[in-house]
Amino acid sequence: KQDYFKAKEFYEKACNGGCAGGCYNLGVFYMNGQGVKQDYFKAKEFYEKACNGGCAGGCYNLGVFYMNGQGVKQDYFKAVELYKKACDGGSSEGCSNLGVLYMNGQGVKQDYLKAKEFYEKACNGGYSGGCSNLGVLYMNGQGVKQDYLKAKEFYEKACNGGYSGGCSNLGLLYMNGQGIKQDYFKAKEFSEKACNAGISEGCHNSGVLYEKGQGVKQDYFKAKEFYEKACNGGYSGGCYNLGALYNSGQGVKQDYFKAKEFYEKACNGGCAGGCYNLGVFYMNGQGVKQDYFKAKEFFGKACTAGEDLGCEAYAKLNK
Fold first, then answer.
1. Tens digit of pLDDT for each residue in 229-252?
2. C-beta neighbour count of 68 within 10 angstroms
3. Contact at 8 Å (CB) between 295 and 318?
4. What's the rounded Cα separation, in Å, for the pair 120 and 113?
5. Residue 106: predicted pLDDT
6. Which of 102, 165, 246, 299 could lock 279 by a disulfide, CB 3.0 to 4.6 Å apart?
7. ∠ CA(39), CA(40), CA(41), 5° rounding?
8. Per-residue DSSP letters for 89-122?
9. Nearest-CA neighbor of 148 among 293, 303, 156?
10. pTM of the entire structure?
């Protein structure tokens, strides 16, 4: 019978006896609150023991803590150090996350060639997330010549390997017809696969297909359902599109208050279009009391985030 308390007892015995794997598993228990009260500080302590004992998984999980600021102060330099140790110790996930830090220039100087090197190591080591990240580099032409067919190849490898982000990216390639023949049916298949696995972007893309009737019969109710999933999962584009449905009254009763709510969520999540539309609402008094100062504020936010219409509207109000 499954018994976390008993398991903890034996892992403690193993860890105290010098078994790095026992320390690692204790860290997992404290991280997830299995058989113990969740405690990131305790988890960190056991991951450190595991890492110092030669367990690459302990170094990797400790790196994640420093990267995300869980149980420790966020420290990208420490994360780099730990991911290197994990990667050298055979952790493909460690190689992939090291690639992410090089790609983003976090704790190291941004270097797409280095990112590619570590993603390749991760992908060849069997970690599908590394394959997906390689696909992103080829799709964007970062550190490599832009090559949509190569991107497709790596996204397929990632998706087939169980990494759902790869499925989502593959769906997007089929949706846009980048480097491959546009195929909305394929786009729907991979986007929904990703969405069902919890990838918010896949839910968003599924919603777009239903809203536009691409590869499926047009269905605003279905679109709304997928946008809600995307928005609730933290994908700001889903919140924006949900706001647009309430704004236009497609698949839902027109509701400016609801639209404002979702545009706000989108704007706070970094979606420039959400900020711009909020500005329009405040300028016109839709779902809110007319307020030019607020309108200007949101147009400014939209402009800063790269929305040209926001810049134009801000300039007009600033006269």
1. 999 999 999 999 999 999 999 989
2. 12
3. no
4. 11
5. 97
6. 299
7. 90
8. TT-HHHHHHHHHHHHHTSSS---HHHHHHHHHHH
9. 156
10. 0.86
